[in-house]
């Protein structure tokens, strides 16, 4: 069955172009041109992925994203945010409200399809288990363990659930994938580029702020003192390491 993608943009030409490219690649597309219609469409028939413009009439894309994340039926649906603005703050705000990815207009067909495939692939096939916990490669072909346990932290890979000290922690798809990858490589310092490549699945063209934002989210949800993290530590000038 074709994967269903909700495309939301008030620019008719861009809406048609994005929809056409996705349909030509085998996806089923639902089109809407405003925020309210997008919310109604998503709640009526939850999509597999949302391509969402920030600047929309009525309810803007940021508020649409917030509401989708609050709704249980759409809380885990991957969201790609579109913005015509190049300032980094706009991209960060999109990530802050729950988007998994962002694209700055104009963008090409190949970039769009690559990002759609990467997000859907990560939802369908979370990163594979490694035979060596400290190895960065994860193509060993070994069966995946159903649960990763590090101290009070438990990661249920099959159910994509996380608990800390026995309390369930709500994580968005990319947060879950990032945490899982850090835990599997416990003790290994990972660069931001490595995390972008392995967790997001393609080259982010140097937008490593994406990693920093997601790391901050994880610390706020997992650390007793987010400002003085014990589990996910920063290695200045390099990247991050999981020390739990």
Automatic annotation (TrEMBL):
Residues 4-120 form the Response regulatory domain. GO terms for biological process: regulation of DNA-templated transcription. GO terms for molecular function: phosphorelay response regulator activity; transcription cis-regulatory region binding. Residues 145-244 form the OmpR/PhoB-type domain. GO terms for cellular component: cytosol; protein-DNA complex. Gene3D superfamilies: 3.40.50.2300, 6.10.250.690, Winged helix-like DNA-binding domain superfamily/Winged helix DNA-binding domain. The modification 4-aspartylphosphate is found at residue 53. This is DNA-binding response regulator. It comes from Dictyobacter aurantiacus. The lineage of its organism: Bacteria, Bacillati, Chloroflexota, Ktedonobacteria, Ktedonobacterales.
């Amino acid at each position: 069955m074709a994967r269903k993608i909700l495309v939301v943009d008030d620019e008719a030409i861009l809406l048609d172009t994005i929809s056409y490219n996705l349909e030509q690649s085998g996806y089923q597309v639902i089109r809407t041109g405003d925020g309210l219609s997008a919310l109604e469409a998503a709640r009526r028939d939850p999509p597999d992925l949302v391509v969402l413009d920030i600047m929309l009439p009525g309810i803007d894309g940021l508020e649409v994203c917030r509401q989708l994340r609050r709704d249980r039926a759409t809380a885990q649906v991957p969201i790609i945010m579109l913005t015509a603005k190049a300032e980094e703050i706009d991209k960060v705000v999109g990530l802050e409200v729950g988007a998994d990815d962002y694209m700055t207009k104009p963008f090409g067909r190949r970039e769009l399809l690559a990002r759609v495939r990467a997000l859907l692939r990560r939802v369908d096939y979370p990163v594979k288990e490694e035979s060596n916990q400290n190895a960065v490669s994860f193509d060993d072909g070994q069966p995946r363990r159903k649960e990763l346990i590090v101290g009070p932290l438990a990661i249920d890979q099959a159910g994509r659930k996380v608990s800390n000290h026995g309390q369930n922690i709500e994580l968005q798809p990319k947060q879950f994938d990032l945490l899982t990858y850090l835990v599997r490589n416990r003790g290994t310092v990972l660069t931001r580029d490595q995390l972008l490549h392995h967790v997001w699945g393609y080259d982010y063209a140097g937008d490593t702020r994406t990693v920093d934002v997601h790391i901050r989210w994880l610390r706020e949800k997992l650390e007793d003192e987010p400002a003085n993290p014990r589990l996910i530590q920063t290695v200045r000038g390099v990247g991050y390491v999981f020390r739990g």
